[in-house]
Amino acid sequence: MKPSTILLYTETARPPISTTLDLLAETAERSGLRLVGTGEEASGDRPETTVGVVLGGDGTILRGLDLFMERGIPSFGINVGHLGYLASAEPEEIGTVIPRVAGGDFTIDRLPVLIGRLPDGTAVRALNDICVNRSLSGGILHLEIASGDESIARIAGDGLVVSTPVGSTAYALSAGGPILDPRLPAILTVPICAHHLAIRPIVFPPESVLSVKAGWIRGDGPVVSADGRPVCTLDQGERVVVELSEGQCPVIRFKPGNEFYERLGRKFGWGERG
Predict the structure, then answer these.
(1) Looking at the annotation, which residues are catalytic?
(2) Looking at the structure, do residues 43 and 152 belong to the same domain, yes or no?
(3) What is the tens place of the pLDDT at every residue in 176-213?
């Protein structure tokens, strides 16, 4: 695949520094690529000749990857935020990676995606995680976790993270979960501040259909969020059902130098000598 057009996604709330945007535009032009905003693409643009690029930190990259996945376009992030773990390049690498895009010199990782089905029948999508969290004015949560018809556990605590392997390095990791290689077909659940010490993270097979049911509620009910975006509040007895989507998110990577374990070491210090 040799693209002819790059669609740019960024967010006006925290725009990238102008020098990064100028460098991207200049390098794209020198490389023979047409750079346009996501709202400017012409009707003649075809998904098979188009890639997306996201300028931002991990939150912006998540939203941009989701947008391009919806359009069937492979994309990648350039980190102009803090950590930028999801990014495939840093600003100083623009002069290298954009010519590689023009020449088709990249690989595409197809990352698993979660689908959450809410009580009202709507569905939400998440690349990192779908979470059930205690509200600010609510008491301790009582959640019942099931896989299909089989009850798994009852949890008293602050909530639950249901994560993809990619999301295992995000909220799930901060909550005490393990790191999963993104090539693993799996779903990870991590309890948040569980009151029972025997409650621990569990890794489920990819065909699992998990449900998280709200038990007794004091105050406001738990908040369900998808990749950090609140999507609904559960009443007592309501549940959210989570499973892996049949579709995947195509993310452009530049190898060597952007493999999973290399990013762990570069971003998190994983494997460095103590």
Answers:
(1) 58
(2) no
(3) 999 999 989 999 999 999 998 899 999 999 999 999 99
